[in-house]
Every structure is written in C-alpha cells, then in structure tokens.
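User: Please predict the structure of the protein below. I'd like the answer in structure-token form so I can feed it into my own downstream comparison script.

Assistant: Understood. Taking the following sequence of 69 residues as input:
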Amino acid sequence: MDAIKLNVINEVKIKGRLLSDVAKDYGLTTKSVYQIVQQNEQKSNKSRLAMVQQTKSLGLRLKQLLTRH
C-alpha cells in the first residue's frame, strides 16, 4: 500500500478527521477517501476472521492431541 493511502487511513481512523477535510488536504475526492478507508477495513476484517478460524482450528487440534495421551 502506498504512503498516501496509509496517511489517509491514519488521518481518518486514528486522528478521527473528517473525510472531506482529509480529501481536501490530499487533493482527493471525499468518495476516494471513503473507498480507501473501506478497502482497508475490509482487509482488516478478513485478516481478523482468518486469525479467529486458525485459533479455533489449533484449539481443536490441541484438544485432540491432549485426549490421545
């Protein structure tokens, strides 16, 4: 991900700035800023889901191994 997108995401999500203000500062449309933030959120949710699924899978595997011995 390029530096501008990371900065835009940081401005909105961490600093809590308005999409329209961030758009003006970076020479983007408000819609573009919204899309950048949304895409990041979707990727974040997919990563979170994958970690939860892997944790459950490992927990089940550990349980299986412990019941064998």
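That's the full token string. Residues 30-68 form the longest helix (39 residues).
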